[in-house]
Amino acid sequence: MSRKFNMVICGLDASTSCTGWSIFDNGELIAYGAIKPKGDDWHDRVMGLTMELSKIFRQYQPTIIYAEEVPLKKGASTIEKLGAVQGVILALCAGFKIKPCFLMPSKWRGDLNLFDGTRAGLQRDVLKKKAIEMANEEFGLELAWVAPSSKKNEDDCAEGILIAYSQIKKKGV
C-alpha cells in the first residue's frame, strides 16, 4: 500500500499595504487571494496582516512557505516595514511549524523566465503586468491589469501565486 505525501505550499508577496497569497496542494493551485489590512499606521496594518495570515495557515496547514526576500535597494522606511512583515512571517512559521524560504524577486522571476532580457523589461510595471499575464495563462484566472501603477491591478495576487509556482515548477512537486 503506497501512502501519498501531502505537500501544501504557500506563496506570499507580502507588504504592509497588500499581501498576495496562494496555496498549492501537491502542485495544484487550490486557493489564492490578497490581504489588504486597514489602518493609516503601518504598525496596525502589520497586526492585521498577522491575524489574516494566521487564519490562512490554520485553515490550509502549509508545510513550506515561499515568500519574497526584502530587497536592500529601497529606502530605509520601506526596509523597516518589509523587515517587520518578514519578522511576522518568521514568527508565524515558528508557531505553525512551517518551513520558511525567502527568495529574491530576481530569483523567482528568473526561474519562470519573466524577464525578457531588455532594459525596458526590468521596469517594475512591465514585470507586474507580465506576472498577471502568466498567472492568468497558467491557471485560467482573470486577474486584472488596469494601467501602470493602478491600485486596481491584481499583481500582488499574481505574484503570491507565482512565487510558490516558481519553486513547484523548478522542483517538480
Describe this structure in words.
The protein is an alpha/beta fold. Helices cover 46% and strands 18% of the residues. Helix 2 (76-96) links the parallel strand 4 (64-68) and strand 5. Helix 3 crosses helix 5 and helix 4 (124-139) crosses helix 5. The longest helix has 21 residues, at 76-96. The mean pLDDT is 91.
Strand order of the largest sheet: 3-2-1-4-5
Order of helices and strands: EEEHEHEHHH
Number-wise, the strands total: 5
Number of helices: 5
Mean pLDDT: 91
* Straight-line N-to-C gap: 21 Å
Low-confidence stretches: none
Q: Which secondary-structure class do the elements indicate?
A: alpha/beta
Strand residues, percent: 15-25%
**Nearest-angstrom radius of gyration?**
16 Å
Shape: globular
Largest sheet data: 5 strands, mixed
Q: Quaternary arrangement of the chains shown?
A: single chain
State the helicity in percent bands: 40-55%
